[in-house]
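Before the break, one more example. Copy the sequence into your notebook; we will annotate it together after we see the structure.
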Amino acid sequence: MRILVIGSGAREHALLLALSKDDSVTDLHIAPGGDGMTDLAVCHPEWEGAAIDVEDGAQITALATELQADLVVVGPEIPLVAGVGDALREAGIAVFGPSKEAAIIEGSKAFAKDVMNAAGVATATATRIESSEDIEAVLDAYGPQYVVKDDGLAGGKGVVVTSDRAEAAAHARSVLDAGNPVLVESFLDGPEVSLFCFVDGETVVPLLPAQDHKRAFDNDEGPNTGGMGAYAPLPWLPEDAVQRIVDEVCEPVAREMVARGCPYSGLLYAGLAWGSAGPAVVEFNCRFGDPETQAVLALLTTPLAEVLAATAQGRLAELPPLEWHEGAALTVVLAAAGYPAAPQKGDVIHGLGAVDYEGDSYVLHAGTKRTEAGEFVANGGRVLNAVARGTDVEDARAKAYELIESLELEGGFYRSDIALKAQRGEISI
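Here is what the structure looks like once it is written out:
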């Protein structure tokens, strides 16, 4: 099977690694990819002299056609919401990723709310704001913990949760000034859970539950980010939790999408709060999450390519159950100085050696570039991921932190408490 992956971050690096271990895969390509991925796939930063634009359906389709790709796996949300999957399907190319119409479940939080309400899925109440004149009146109806969201794509950083009304109002104004509507929601208490599901129409197959750490600094302090680390599975989650999420959330949403004439095909990411009454949806994403994917796929033993192809071809229900390594996996993000507001680029990364992908710990590239001298430098906010698999959370943590501590990046930083509460037997938020 010849596969083309779309994207350039650590999530896509993790996908390449998992796909490379599938014996059915003969060729791996990625567009645009990155310099740290060339040991796994052929990178295509440009096509016919033009830089790859992941939102350009015609360009991506032309590249996939030239490569004679049997399957295209779209990593990020932006090309999915832009309709790249539709362009590929119209050309007869199998795609892992939803249509433009279905991807709106991430592209518009208001649309997602409407789907959930119709499907009877528990979620926060919400009010949409389209004019700054309405901000104060809407905030009057919420609080004292305010949840203010960008009703559009924000790379996981468009949400502010705060008890500071002035901060909530300021974020709402900034979103409106950027041209997007705002969603103000009631606060959902309880720890957060990320559950990925392969979805093919009404067929839903869950992966292992994971938890992301969004705040930049230890103890969940600092600004919201795209994610500073994640671990899987969740030892504190009730034994029946995954099945409840599938039964009460993912399957009803999948049926509702079919009923609306926009059946879902691809990876549905449910971000949930696990409260006293069980799961309630915080948001949906239309793709693999970053950095949870890095931890979840480290535990998957089922060949990934066949599952993605079966989902794309409408054969998901025919596959046997997914199989997993015992134990736990964890990823820690090394971020550049100034992240998330103004990441510093160009600093040399020291300590990177040859990657042993067969070992229990390895580095994935998120935002790096190789210089003419052969050195890797920071080229994004989230620079590298240290990933480790262990017999339990404590073992995985020890291996991941031993690896990340061997890396040096001037001004770079990482959280020291990824999955620490879970290791202590506590429920992490």
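The first helix runs from residue 10 to 20. DSSP finds 13 helices and 26 strands in the chain. Try to locate both features in your own notes.
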